[in-house]
């Protein structure tokens, strides 16, 4: 049984007040709160177990290395990956996608070669490809969603041409909560011999993931959205693609031997992990992923689907609330504006006075907001510890906004 009250007790911050009101934290799409087991693991690592990894032979270094390297297998299990050696540690999805851009895409793309993107993408899955457009003449081909935010896999597949070298697509929009059928996209792309990168920043947070079933070539996640620390993350890379990649960063750990006139590189995944890593951050992410797997991602998905449906039922009574993206089966992420002159920042400020934390702005997705004809929205993004009562608190705060700005 999914006991949300018990789960909430695992998150110390949820017991606090903001502006004299109980905290209603609905900014999970930006960064999720941390359960006590993660906080305790980080504290333990710094207080009693800290040392640099890989290069020491003393007890603390061996202990830190064992815990740090053990996270690779945890990530592989969480993502349904067949081999932990296919997991490269990063500081988050942004670094993971940049790694693919620099280490895999840049060496094999010529002027006129294409990358297919959707308008749903976060800037982290746009800007690295703009680098290739600016520097190497790569062409970005854009696929627009339907008005409700749905992304038709067939439209993505149809955009693949003779010069397409990569499809880069999100599994779930961070703005609308649209769930993309990335498995269908991967099947179509594979038939045309084109690799697919999946941005799993949101998708992996809200539902079970199996990269084997998806059939992608790259799948990136970020720890801080997965109830882990900032500065943690990973990217799964199929061994075939990993073998095609050159090193991105140079330094310690990613080498075997360094001479005055030559260098030999380490085997993957170490080949792509230069320098002292975020040791404690990755250990914390591993604990967070174990926590999620203990709850069961299917259970998390079912709980959040209930919150989504309840929120949509409450929103129906607010005829002055404009939702951006209402795709069937979407996640519990809602971007909205209010009729009238109220700016998203003003709405967010009023909600904060009621203890309700939401995000306001462009959500690092300016092409998508342009598609919807808005310059900014508010976003309420729900997580595994949110409740129906918090949906009610959001609606009450929105009704206050409507009274103030109507």
TrEMBL record:
Keywords: Pyridoxal phosphate, Transferase. Belongs to the class-V pyridoxal-phosphate-dependent aminotransferase family. Csd subfamily. The keyword Transferase applies. This is Cysteine desulfurase. CDD domains: SufS_like. Residues 24-394 form the Aminotransferase class V domain. Gene3D superfamilies: Aspartate Aminotransferase, domain 1 (3.90.1150.10), Type I PLP-dependent aspartate aminotransferase-like (Major domain) (3.40.640.10). It comes from the Bacteria. Pfam families: Aminotran_5 (PF00266). InterPro entries: Aminotrans_V_dom (IPR000192), Aminotrans_V_PyrdxlP_BS (IPR020578), Cys_dSase_SufS (IPR010970), PyrdxlP-dep_Trfase (IPR015424), PyrdxlP-dep_Trfase_major (IPR015421), PyrdxlP-dep_Trfase_small (IPR015422). Coiled coil: none annotated. Its cofactor is pyridoxal 5'-phosphate. It catalyses: (sulfur carrier)-H + L-cysteine = (sulfur carrier)-SH + L-alanine. PANTHER family: CYSTEINE DESULFURASE, CYSTEINE DESULFURASE 1, CHLOROPLASTIC. Catalyzes the removal of elemental sulfur and selenium atoms from L-cysteine, L-cystine, L-selenocysteine, and L-selenocystine to produce L-alanine. Its EC number is 2.8.1.7.
């Amino acid at each position: 049984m999914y006991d949300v009250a018990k789960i909430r007790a695992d998150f110390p911050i949820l017991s606090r007040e903001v502006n004299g009101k109980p905290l209603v934290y609905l900014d999970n799409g930006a960064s999720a709160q941390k359960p006590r087991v993660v906080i305790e693991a980080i504290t333990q690592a710094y207080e009693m177990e800290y040392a640099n990894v890989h290069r020491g032979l003393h007890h603390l270094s061996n202990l830190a290395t064992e815990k740090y390297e053990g996270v690779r297998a945890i990530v592989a299990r969480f993502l349904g990956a067949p081999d932990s050696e296919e997991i490269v540690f990063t500081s988050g999805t942004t670094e993971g996608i940049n790694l693919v851009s620099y280490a895999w895409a840049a060496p094999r793309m010529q002027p006129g070669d294409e990358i297919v993107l959707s308008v749903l993408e976060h800037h982290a899955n746009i800007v690295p490809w703009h680098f290739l457009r600016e520097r190497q003449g790569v062409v970005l081909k854009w696929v627009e969603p339907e008005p409700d935010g749905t992304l038709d896999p067939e439209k993505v597949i149809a955009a693949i041409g003779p010069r397409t070298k990569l499809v880069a697509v999100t599994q779930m929009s961070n703005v609308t909560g649209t769930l993309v059928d990335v498995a269908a996209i991967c099947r179509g792309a594979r038939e045309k011999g084109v690799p697919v990168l999946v941005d799993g920043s949101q998708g992996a947070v809200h539902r079970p993931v199996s990269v084997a079933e998806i059939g992608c070539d790259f799948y990136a996640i970020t720890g801080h959205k997965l109830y882990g620390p900032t500065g943690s993350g990973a990217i799964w890379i199929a061994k075939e693609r990993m073998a095609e990649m050159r090193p991105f960063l140079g330094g310690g750990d990613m080498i075997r031997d360094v001479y005055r006139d030559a260098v030999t590189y380490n085997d993957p995944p170490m080949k792509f992990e230069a320098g002292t890593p975020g040791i404690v951050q990755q250990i914390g992410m591993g604990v967070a992923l174990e926590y999620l797997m203990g709850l069961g991602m299917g259970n998390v998905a079912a709980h959040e689907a209930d919150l989504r449906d309840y929120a949509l039922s409450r929103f129906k009574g607010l005829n002055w609330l404009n939702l951006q993206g209402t795709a069937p089966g979407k996640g519990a992420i809602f971007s909205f504006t209010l009729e009238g002159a109220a700016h998203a920042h003003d709405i967010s400020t009023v909600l904060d006075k009621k203890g309700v934390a939401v995000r306001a702005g462009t959500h690092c997705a300016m092409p998508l907001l342009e598609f919807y004809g808005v310059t900014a929205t508010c976003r309420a993004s729900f997580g595994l510890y949110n409740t129906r009562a918090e949906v009610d608190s959001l609606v009450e705060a929105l009704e206050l906004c409507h009274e103030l700005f109507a």
